[in-house]
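Handout, section 3.2

Students often ask what a structure token actually looks like in practice. Rather than define it abstractly, here is a full record for Purine-cytosine permease-like protein. The first block is the sequence as you would receive it.
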Amino acid sequence: MMQDIPPPSGNVVFLGVNIVHLASGVAGGIVRGLINPSYTWAARISSAVVGGLTAGYGTPAAAHIVRRWLELWGYPFGNVEGSVGFLLGLCGMTICDAIIRWARRWRDGPPSAPLPPPPQRTC
């Protein structure tokens, strides 16, 4: 007697990341790399990797916010995780760059007072 094999669910998790979120983020990163003609191949690959990681880890929280926003406005919605993951992947490099700049600013503290101008020499 053969056991029934359950159909695959969309919640396949690898290293704590939902594969659907990761794949949609990689797709967004690829699109970002392809629409900018000045990107090198290394920049395109890194855009896809960072987009996938950003979407993989950020989609659960961002999808929750999007669902609440859609409920507030009364729009019917279904599964928004794929769309949110794609958008996070598309914006992943920008999001990570902003976070890194914020962390550096926080690490360095407030800017110091500007130095007075050097004295002018007279001949």
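Discussion prompt for tutorial groups: The helical segments are 19-35, 41-73, 81-90, 92-108. How would you have guessed this from the sequence alone?
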